[in-house]
Amino acid sequence: MSDVGELLFSTGTTELFGELVRGKGTVLVLHAHPDDEVFATGAATAFLARQGCRVVLRVATKGEAAEPGAATVREARRRRSRRFNQACRAIGLADWDQIAPGRWIDTGGTPAEDSLTSASVDDLADAIAPHVNNLAPKAILTVGSDGLTGHPDHILMHQAVTRAVGGTLPVYGASLGADDVTAGHQQLAAVLPGMRVGSDRMTGSARTDLLTLHAPPSAGAARRDALSCYGPGLGGLPLADLVRIYPGRGDSLLLRAVLDAIGSSTERYEPLPNA
Questions:
Q1: Which of 67, 165, 218, 265 is the most exposed place for a label (fewest CB within 10 A)?
Q2: Structural domain of residue 45, as residue ranges?
């Protein structure tokens, strides 16, 4: 078995990211918010980094909306930045920063002045393009056309990346199958009976051609370590214990349950036309 033999399409015959590993080039990861790099593409990032690729991350916001207990926006950014830095180190990223520092903020999907949700596809694509040109990556990782969770910022990111790249590079969009999301809900139903967790936007893709990434267990372990940077026990505690201390009942908890169902080393990718 080759050094990428554990990283396969679901067919078990075609290597996913095999050329990247052999070439050990730069991979650019593009996301809307801090924590997307773990939930969406954490296993691939951890594996590629450990195989010698230089994996670079750029996010559009500082994740302000994910820190509701912060008294000020400045404090929210400080808290999220600390978690973000720890998580990026945990999955082995070589470099991370904002796409356009200070330009867009995270408002949780609510349109507002300077929010990413209110940005145009063209403006975000124009901000992404210099990173693609300067870094000259061999491939790009982002989210699929449904934004993984249906979040409008995620969908915008997918559209902007696609426009910025214009078919010149392989782009892999992280997604989930509808069965994956159902399995996550089933995991949660066992520990939170009668409670609906997650947004109605997160339904999973109906596509039958999603590619399944089977990364080594070490990549899944790094991904879980990174998740715990964003919330105590988010990556490591058993789900039954986590729900007792984790305050959220949104998509983050549902995504964690999905990881329990399909495995933290597993990711699904939408085959984009240029991939």
A1: 218
A2: 18-271
